[in-house]
Protein backbone atom coordinates (compact mmCIF):
# COMPACT_ATOMS: atom_id res chain seq x y z
CA UNK A 1 0.00 0.00 0.00
CA UNK A 2 1.50 3.32 -1.09
CA UNK A 3 1.08 6.56 0.78
CA UNK A 4 -0.82 9.40 -0.87
CA UNK A 5 1.45 12.15 -2.25
CA UNK A 6 1.92 15.22 -0.06
CA UNK A 7 -0.32 18.16 -1.04
CA UNK A 8 1.53 20.81 -3.06
CA UNK A 9 0.84 24.44 -2.11
CA UNK A 10 1.81 27.51 -4.14
CA UNK A 11 2.38 30.68 -2.10
CA UNK A 12 2.25 33.96 -4.05
CA UNK A 13 3.33 36.81 -1.79
CA UNK A 14 6.01 39.51 -2.13
CA UNK A 15 6.77 39.39 1.61
CA UNK A 16 9.84 37.15 1.48
CA UNK A 17 10.19 36.90 5.25
CA UNK A 18 6.60 35.74 5.63
CA UNK A 19 6.80 33.24 2.77
CA UNK A 20 10.02 31.82 4.22
CA UNK A 21 8.34 31.35 7.62
CA UNK A 22 5.25 29.80 6.03
CA UNK A 23 7.36 27.48 3.90
CA UNK A 24 9.26 26.21 6.95
CA UNK A 25 6.09 25.78 9.00
CA UNK A 26 3.97 24.11 6.31
CA UNK A 27 6.84 21.87 5.21
CA UNK A 28 7.02 20.53 8.75
CA UNK A 29 3.28 19.82 8.51
CA UNK A 30 3.90 17.59 5.49
CA UNK A 31 3.20 19.94 2.58
CA UNK A 32 5.32 20.56 -0.50
CA UNK A 33 5.73 24.32 -0.88
CA UNK A 34 6.57 26.46 -3.92
CA UNK A 35 6.87 30.23 -3.48
CA UNK A 36 6.59 33.19 -5.88
CA UNK A 37 7.27 36.79 -4.95
CA UNK A 38 5.57 38.70 -7.76
CA UNK A 39 2.22 38.52 -9.49
CA UNK A 40 3.41 37.81 -13.04
CA UNK A 41 5.45 34.78 -12.02
CA UNK A 42 2.63 33.72 -9.74
CA UNK A 43 0.11 33.92 -12.60
CA UNK A 44 2.14 31.54 -14.75
CA UNK A 45 2.56 29.15 -11.84
CA UNK A 46 -1.15 29.37 -10.94
CA UNK A 47 -2.05 27.94 -14.36
CA UNK A 48 -0.16 24.75 -13.48
CA UNK A 49 -2.61 22.04 -12.41
CA UNK A 50 -0.07 20.25 -10.19
CA UNK A 51 -0.89 22.47 -7.18
CA UNK A 52 -3.52 21.41 -4.66
CA UNK A 53 -3.97 24.91 -3.23
CA UNK A 54 -2.82 28.50 -3.84
CA UNK A 55 -2.22 31.08 -1.09
CA UNK A 56 -2.52 34.46 -2.79
CA UNK A 57 -1.62 37.83 -1.30
CA UNK A 58 -3.65 40.87 -2.37
CA UNK A 59 -1.08 43.66 -2.45
CA UNK A 60 1.92 42.91 -4.67
CA UNK A 61 3.95 45.07 -7.06
CA UNK A 62 3.47 44.66 -10.80
CA UNK A 63 0.39 42.49 -10.67
CA UNK A 64 -1.88 42.48 -7.63
CA UNK A 65 -3.73 39.45 -6.35
CA UNK A 66 -6.96 40.90 -7.75
CA UNK A 67 -5.42 41.38 -11.19
CA UNK A 68 -4.08 37.84 -11.06
CA UNK A 69 -7.58 36.52 -10.34
CA UNK A 70 -9.00 38.59 -13.20
CA UNK A 71 -6.39 37.11 -15.53
CA UNK A 72 -7.41 33.60 -14.50
CA UNK A 73 -10.99 34.59 -15.32
CA UNK A 74 -12.64 32.25 -12.82
CA UNK A 75 -11.61 29.26 -14.92
CA UNK A 76 -9.04 27.85 -12.50
CA UNK A 77 -9.64 24.48 -10.88
CA UNK A 78 -7.10 24.91 -8.07
CA UNK A 79 -8.69 26.41 -4.92
CA UNK A 80 -7.36 29.85 -3.98
CA UNK A 81 -7.15 31.19 -0.43
CA UNK A 82 -6.76 34.99 -0.48
CA UNK A 83 -4.61 36.67 2.16
CA UNK A 84 -6.25 40.06 2.78
CA UNK A 85 -5.65 43.10 4.95
CA UNK A 86 -7.17 42.71 8.39
CA UNK A 87 -10.71 44.05 8.57
CA UNK A 88 -10.82 45.18 4.94
CA UNK A 89 -14.25 43.88 3.93
CA UNK A 90 -14.00 45.37 0.44
CA UNK A 91 -10.90 43.29 -0.33
CA UNK A 92 -12.60 40.12 0.88
CA UNK A 93 -15.73 40.69 -1.19
CA UNK A 94 -13.80 41.62 -4.33
CA UNK A 95 -11.57 38.56 -4.00
CA UNK A 96 -14.60 36.27 -3.76
CA UNK A 97 -16.28 38.01 -6.70
CA UNK A 98 -13.19 37.38 -8.81
CA UNK A 99 -13.10 33.66 -8.03
CA UNK A 100 -11.21 33.16 -4.77
CA UNK A 101 -12.57 30.24 -2.75
CA UNK A 102 -12.00 31.73 0.69
CA UNK A 103 -10.02 34.43 2.49
CA UNK A 104 -7.94 34.87 5.60
CA UNK A 105 -7.07 38.26 7.11
CA UNK A 106 -3.48 39.21 7.94
CA UNK A 107 -1.99 38.95 10.46
CA UNK A 108 -3.05 35.39 11.20
CA UNK A 109 -1.94 32.60 13.50
CA UNK A 110 -0.14 29.74 11.78
CA UNK A 111 -2.53 27.24 13.33
CA UNK A 112 -5.48 29.20 11.92
CA UNK A 113 -3.93 29.08 8.45
CA UNK A 114 -3.28 25.35 8.79
CA UNK A 115 -6.90 24.74 9.82
CA UNK A 116 -8.16 26.71 6.81
CA UNK A 117 -5.83 24.83 4.44
CA UNK A 118 -6.92 21.45 5.78
CA UNK A 119 -10.59 22.45 5.49
CA UNK A 120 -10.14 23.34 1.82
CA UNK A 121 -8.27 20.12 1.08
CA UNK A 122 -11.00 18.08 2.81
CA UNK A 123 -13.52 19.84 0.60
CA UNK A 124 -11.58 18.83 -2.50
CA UNK A 125 -11.59 15.19 -1.36
CA UNK A 126 -15.37 15.39 -0.94
CA UNK A 127 -15.69 16.67 -4.51
CA UNK A 128 -13.48 13.84 -5.78
CA UNK A 129 -15.58 11.32 -3.89
CA UNK A 130 -18.71 12.69 -5.54
CA UNK A 131 -17.03 12.46 -8.95
CA UNK A 132 -16.39 8.77 -8.43
CA UNK A 133 -20.14 8.23 -8.08
CA UNK A 134 -20.38 9.14 -11.76
CA UNK A 135 -24.01 10.31 -11.83
CA UNK A 136 -25.80 13.31 -13.29
CA UNK A 137 -28.56 15.52 -11.91
CA UNK A 138 -30.84 17.70 -14.01
CA UNK A 139 -33.00 20.25 -12.20
CA UNK A 140 -34.66 23.38 -13.61
CA UNK A 141 -32.62 23.28 -16.84
CA UNK A 142 -29.38 22.82 -14.89
CA UNK A 143 -27.40 19.67 -15.69
CA UNK A 144 -24.72 18.68 -13.16
CA UNK A 145 -22.27 15.98 -14.22
CA UNK A 146 -20.56 14.90 -11.01
CA UNK A 147 -18.12 12.56 -12.76
CA UNK A 148 -16.35 15.38 -14.60
CA UNK A 149 -17.53 18.28 -12.37
CA UNK A 150 -19.29 19.99 -15.26
CA UNK A 151 -22.36 22.23 -15.15
CA UNK A 152 -24.60 23.20 -18.05
CA UNK A 153 -27.44 25.71 -18.11
CA UNK A 154 -29.89 25.32 -21.01
CA UNK A 155 -27.25 23.23 -22.75
CA UNK A 156 -24.48 25.81 -22.37
CA UNK A 157 -21.36 25.14 -20.32
CA UNK A 158 -21.03 27.17 -17.08
CA UNK A 159 -17.55 27.57 -15.60
CA UNK A 160 -17.72 27.31 -11.80
CA UNK A 161 -14.92 27.31 -9.24
CA UNK A 162 -14.67 24.28 -6.96
CA UNK A 163 -16.42 26.11 -4.13
CA UNK A 164 -19.22 27.38 -6.37
CA UNK A 165 -19.73 23.86 -7.70
CA UNK A 166 -20.08 22.45 -4.21
CA UNK A 167 -22.48 25.21 -3.12
CA UNK A 168 -24.61 24.47 -6.17
CA UNK A 169 -24.65 20.71 -5.59
CA UNK A 170 -25.67 21.22 -1.95
CA UNK A 171 -28.54 23.52 -2.97
CA UNK A 172 -29.76 21.21 -5.75
CA UNK A 173 -29.55 18.19 -3.43
CA UNK A 174 -32.08 20.05 -1.26
CA UNK A 175 -34.18 21.43 -4.13
CA UNK A 176 -37.28 23.27 -2.92
CA UNK A 177 -36.03 23.43 0.68
CA UNK A 178 -34.23 26.18 2.59
CA UNK A 179 -30.53 25.58 3.14
CA UNK A 180 -29.14 27.93 5.78
CA UNK A 181 -25.92 29.86 5.31
CA UNK A 182 -24.63 28.16 8.45
CA UNK A 183 -25.17 24.74 6.87
CA UNK A 184 -23.53 25.79 3.61
CA UNK A 185 -20.52 27.18 5.46
CA UNK A 186 -20.07 24.04 7.55
CA UNK A 187 -20.56 21.59 4.67
CA UNK A 188 -18.80 23.50 1.91
CA UNK A 189 -16.22 25.72 3.61
CA UNK A 190 -15.74 23.19 6.42
CA UNK A 191 -15.99 25.92 9.08
CA UNK A 192 -18.63 27.63 11.17
CA UNK A 193 -20.10 30.83 9.79
CA UNK A 194 -18.69 33.82 11.64
CA UNK A 195 -20.54 37.13 12.18
CA UNK A 196 -20.49 39.48 9.16
CA UNK A 197 -18.95 36.74 6.97
CA UNK A 198 -20.07 37.37 3.37
CA UNK A 199 -18.37 34.33 1.81
CA UNK A 200 -21.51 32.30 1.18
CA UNK A 201 -23.43 35.33 -0.13
CA UNK A 202 -20.69 36.05 -2.64
CA UNK A 203 -20.41 32.45 -3.86
CA UNK A 204 -24.19 32.32 -4.41
CA UNK A 205 -24.05 35.72 -6.14
CA UNK A 206 -21.34 34.42 -8.49
CA UNK A 207 -23.42 31.36 -9.38
CA UNK A 208 -26.45 33.55 -10.08
CA UNK A 209 -24.42 35.91 -12.25
CA UNK A 210 -23.05 33.05 -14.35
CA UNK A 211 -26.50 31.53 -14.84
CA UNK A 212 -28.09 34.91 -15.65
CA UNK A 213 -25.59 35.39 -18.47
CA UNK A 214 -27.35 32.44 -20.14
CA UNK A 215 -30.90 32.69 -18.78
CA UNK A 216 -32.59 35.66 -17.07
CA UNK A 217 -34.63 33.60 -14.58
CA UNK A 218 -33.15 33.39 -11.07
CA UNK A 219 -32.98 29.77 -9.97
CA UNK A 220 -31.82 30.51 -6.41
CA UNK A 221 -34.21 32.30 -4.06
CA UNK A 222 -32.98 34.18 -1.00
CA UNK A 223 -35.05 33.70 2.13
CA UNK A 224 -34.09 36.66 4.31
CA UNK A 225 -32.71 35.58 7.66
CA UNK A 226 -32.99 31.89 6.75
CA UNK A 227 -30.86 30.96 3.75
CA UNK A 228 -31.29 29.93 0.12
CA UNK A 229 -33.64 27.71 -1.90
CA UNK A 230 -32.86 26.20 -5.30
CA UNK A 231 -36.14 26.35 -7.24
CA UNK A 232 -37.42 23.22 -8.96
CA UNK A 233 -38.82 25.20 -11.88
CA UNK A 234 -42.13 23.34 -11.76
Shape call: globular
Query: SS-based structural class?
Result: alpha/beta
Quick one: how many beta strands?
Answer: 11
Order of helices and strands: EHEHEHEHEHEEEEHHHEE
Please state roughly what percent of the residues sit in beta strands, choosing from under 5%, 5-15%, 15-25%, 25-35%, 35-45% or over 45%: 15-25%
The first-to-last residue Cα distance is 50 Å
Number of helices: 8
Sum this structure up briefly.
The protein is of the alpha/beta class and 234 residues long.
What does this protein structure show overall?
- The protein has helices at residues 16-28, 39-46, 65-72, 89-97, 110-133, 162-173, 181-189, 199-212, and strands spanning 8-12, 32-36, 53-57, 80-85, 102-106, 136-139, 142-145, 150-153, 156-158, 220-223, 227-230.
- The protein contains 8 helices and 11 strands.
- It has a 5-stranded parallel β-sheet, sandwiched between helices. A 4-stranded antiparallel β-sheet has the order 6-7-8-9, covered by helices on one side. It has a two-stranded antiparallel sheet with strand order 10-11.
- The protein is of the alpha/beta class.
- It is globular, with a radius of gyration of 18 Å.
Which secondary structure elements does this structure contain, and how are they paired or packed?
Elements lengths: L7 E5 L3 H13 L3 E5 L2 H8 L6 E5 L7 H8 L7 E6 L3 H9 L4 E5 L3 H24 L2 E4 L2 E4 L4 E4 L2 E3 L3 H12 L7 H9 L9 H14 L7 E4 L3 E4 L4
Properties at a glance:
alpha/beta, 234 residues, 8 helices, four-stranded antiparallel beta sheet
Amino acid sequence: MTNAPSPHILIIDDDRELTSLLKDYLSLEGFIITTCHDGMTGLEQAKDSRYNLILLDVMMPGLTGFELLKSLGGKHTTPILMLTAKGDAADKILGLELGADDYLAKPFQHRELLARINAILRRIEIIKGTQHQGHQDEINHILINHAIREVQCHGQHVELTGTEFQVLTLLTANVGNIVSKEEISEQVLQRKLSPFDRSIDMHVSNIRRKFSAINDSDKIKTVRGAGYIFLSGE
